[in-house]
């Protein structure tokens, strides 16, 4: 059901410093900051030859990333994102197998302009999983 790894997301307390570290220290191609108000984050994508790194920073007072950074002040891995061909079929199959879909269970448009869903980390060995329709 899942396809390729789309990205690994890392929550960061300082978006500019994190982007500079990937660009200047690691020599990576770093995109521009992109506000995602529906998700409460500002993102920067780091382009790698085989996938992407998504840097996440809180946007607004109700950002889910704020609570994560309170527990992890230095930042850390937030989620992994896998591609699926049909997000509704994937959702229905996962729910039938007992997996919990976060939120209202309906896909939202993600940072790539495609439908996304998040799966409860307790159902996936402690890892928050994002599914993105390709």
Report the count of strand segments.
9
Rg over alpha carbons: 15 Å
The CATH superfamily appears as 2,3-Dihydroxybiphenyl 1,2-Dioxygenase, domain 1
CATH architecture: Roll
**Parts with pLDDT < 50 across at least 5 consecutive residues:** none
User: What is the CATH level 1 assignment?
Assistant: Alpha Beta
Order of helices and strands: EHEEEEHEHEEE
CATH-defined topology: 2,3-Dihydroxybiphenyl 1,2-Dioxygenase, domain 1
User: What share of residues are in beta strands?
Assistant: 35-45%
Helix content: 10-25%
What brief labels describe this structure?
134 residues, alpha+beta, 9-stranded mixed beta sheet, 3 helices, 9 strands
Describe the structure.
- The protein is α+β, with helices and mostly antiparallel strands and 134 residues long.
- It has one domain (5-133): 2,3-Dihydroxybiphenyl 1,2-Dioxygenase, domain 1, CATH 3.10.180.
- 22% of the residues lie in helices and 36% in strands.
- Strands 1, 2, 3, 4, 5, 6, 7, 8 and 9 form a 9-stranded mixed sheet that branches.
- The protein is globular and about 45 Å long.
- The chain starts with a strand and ends with a strand.
List the helices and strands and how they pair.
Blueprint: E1 5-11, H1 15-25, E2 29-30, E3 34-36, E4 41-47, E5 52-58, H2 64-71, E6 76-84, H3 87-96, E7 108-109, E8 115-119, E9 128-133
Parallel strand pairs: 1-5, 6-9
Antiparallel strand pairs: 1-6, 2-4, 3-4, 4-5, 7-8, 8-9
């Amino acid at each position: 059901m899942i396809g390729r790894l789309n990205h690994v997301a890392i929550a960061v307390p300082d978006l500019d410093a994190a982007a500079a570290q990937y660009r200047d220290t690691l020599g990576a191609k770093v995109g521009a900051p992109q506000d995602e108000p529906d998700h409460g984050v500002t993102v920067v994508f780091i382009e790698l030859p085989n996938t992407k790194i998504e840097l996440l920073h809180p946007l607004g007072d109700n950002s889910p990333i704020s609570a994560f950074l309170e527990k992890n002040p230095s930042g850390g891995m937030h989620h992994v994102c896998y591609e699926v061909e049909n997000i509704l079929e994937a959702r229905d199959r996962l729910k039938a197998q007992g997996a919990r879909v976060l939120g209202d269970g309906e896909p939202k448009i993600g940072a790539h302009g495609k439908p996304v869903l998040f799966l409860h980390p307790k159902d996936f060995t402690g890892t928050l999983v994002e599914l993105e329709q390709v």
